[in-house]
Design a protein that fits this description.
single chain, 325 residues, alpha+beta, OB fold (Dihydrolipoamide Acetyltransferase, E2P), five-stranded mixed beta barrel, 8 helices, disordered N terminus
């Protein structure tokens, strides 16, 4: 059954409430970044190991091998460096990775690979995603944080701290796209949106070549590798073309892309449609014609709303902000 494109329902499903989210503080976690060896960081994720693992939020998966956890940097999305065996434009994707490592104090070796040394740093976190990744703001060693300290999202001083995070700095440098999920507090989203817009106006980083709102031609996976495009959509395209490639004979083009998206719909709402109380907004879908334009004849795709206006539904089994029963 095809779902309607617009549902007049509360966006966050039970048992979430705005009060749960607003009253859950971020915890500062002192840690070491692990970037070398068998690990492969990119522009928005890196492995890390806490000095006090009990500070990690519920749901974070620790490696049995070395106790490290995988991060998912909050509020941003960098070009893919390795996804389904593909990458987005390689030079820009590597530049994003290297810029992140520089911000975190991780050195790059002469062979272009990250140093295998553990590098001290910090994370501010309060939840994990369904894959066990720690959703976090990351900082270098000199961040003004205290291990185990709690910070409330609405405090002005907290926003000043976040301006020093690698997340915000990546957006400021145009090295990442804004990508906001529903659990990200509105004041933080506003700060990150502002930094992303400044970078776009300067046409720096990805914004010098971005085709997301202009549209691009996608006939095969190699086209996705060559386009500077919103990474979340690029990931959907890589998966889609991977599935087409399994057909006999292999298939190409965007003729089935809408059906592919409908099969596993991405839910979202638009920040511009949020009412003043912030409680309710219409639920929309990535494949909705008001969100995404798919020209099947020309194999062209473009996003109809800017990334900073999209607030994505966080897929989860239960509320990660509350203790499990």
């Amino acid at each position: 059954m095809t779902l309607p494109y617009l549902l007049p329902v509360a966006f966050a499903p039970a048992p979430y409430t705005a009060l749960d989210i607003a009253q859950t503080p971020y915890t500062a976690v002192q840690l070491a970044f692990h970037a070398g060896g068998s690990y492969a960081p990119d522009g928005d994720s890196i492995r890390m190991k806490a000095l006090r693992p009990n500070l990690w939020p519920l749901g974070v998966k620790r490696s049995k091998k070395d106790g490290t956890v995988q991060s998912r940097m909050e509020g941003m999305d960098a070009l893919e460096l390795h996804f389904y065996g593909y990458s987005q434009p390689l030079l820009l994707a590597l530049a994003a990775r290297d810029h992140l490592l520089k911000l975190l104090g991780v050195s790059i070796q002469k062979d272009g690979k990250p140093s295998s040394k553990e590098v001290p740093g910090w994370a501010l976190t309060r939840s994990a995603d369904i894959y066990g990744r720690c959703i976090a703001f990351l900082f270098p060693q000199n961040a003004p944080l205290v291990d185990g300290a709690k910070y409330m999202a609405g405090d002005a001083s907290f926003l000043d701290i976040l301006r020093q995070s690698a997340n915000v700095q990546m957006l400021s440098a145009g090295m990442a796209y804004p990508m906001f999920y529903e659990l990200l507090p509105t004041p933080i989203r506003g700060l990150m949106r502002e930094e992303a817009l400044k970078a776009r106006e300067k046409k720096i980083g990805v914004w010098a070549e971005d085709q997301t709102l202009l549209g691009a031609h996608f006939f095969k996976a190699n086209d996705v590798e060559e386009a500077v495009f919103y990474p979340k959509l690029a990931r959907r395209l890589f998966r889609y073309f991977s599935e087409l490639g399994k057909a006999n004979p292999p298939q190409f083009g965007l003729g089935r892309f809408s059906s592919f998206l409908e099969a596993e719909p991405d839910l979202l709402h638009l920040a511009s449609e949020m009412p003043p109380d912030g409680e309710h907004a219409p639920t929309r879908f990535l494949h909705g014609p008001e969100i995404l334009e798919i020209d099947e004849k020309q194999d062209r795709l473009r996003l109809l709303v800017p990334p900073e206006d999209i607030v994505w539904h966080e897929k989860m089994h239960e509320n990660p902000l509350l203790p499990r029963r």
